[in-house]
Backbone:
């Protein structure tokens, strides 16, 4: 039986309100009375799950990703949804295209797309990547999440349990 290592990585800046949703989600999962199983049988594999505070991401995220077979990344993203809405999708690291007019710099200093492009250029094998995106309500200097993003935390936990 194959041993699969999965990382649940929360990224974001807790000093910028809803931008910190990923880090807040990891803190919640670590303290949850019913967290996702950190080791279980799944899809014919023995799965080990690590909870990772990815902070503001950036290039350091590349070194985290290369250790895993599957990475679930939780982050704030403006996808045009309702405040606090959650969606998830898998990304194909070979299909990432950077906009020619953009440096792909974000609050995480290098966007996930930029990190994936760099990994491909360096021939670094990346894991399957699943993004859990939360539509932010307010990104501004503050330590607290908005009420809509606070309400999304339980939905993130449920979604992770369905994915793994």
Residues:
């Amino acid at each position: 039986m194959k041993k699969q290592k999965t990382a649940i990585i929360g990224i974001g800046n807790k000093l910028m309100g809803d931008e910190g949703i990923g880090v807040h989600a990891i803190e919640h999962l670590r303290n949850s009375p019913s967290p996702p199983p950190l080791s279980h049988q799944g899809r014919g594999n023995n799965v080990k799950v690590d909870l990772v505070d990815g902070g503001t991401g950036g290039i350091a995220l590349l070194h985290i990703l290369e250790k895993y077979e599957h990475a679930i990344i939780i982050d704030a993203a403006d996808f045009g949804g309702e405040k606090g809405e959650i969606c998830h999708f898998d990304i194909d690291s070979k299909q990432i295209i950077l906009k020619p007019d953009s440096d792909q710099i974000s609050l995480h200093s290098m966007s996930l797309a930029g990190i994936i492009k760099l990994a491909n250029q360096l021939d670094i094998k990346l894991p399957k990547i699943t993004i859990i995106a939360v539509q932010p309500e307010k990104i501004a200097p503050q330590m607290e999440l908005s009420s809509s993003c606070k309400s999304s935390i339980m939905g993130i936990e449920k979604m992770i349990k369905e994915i793994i």
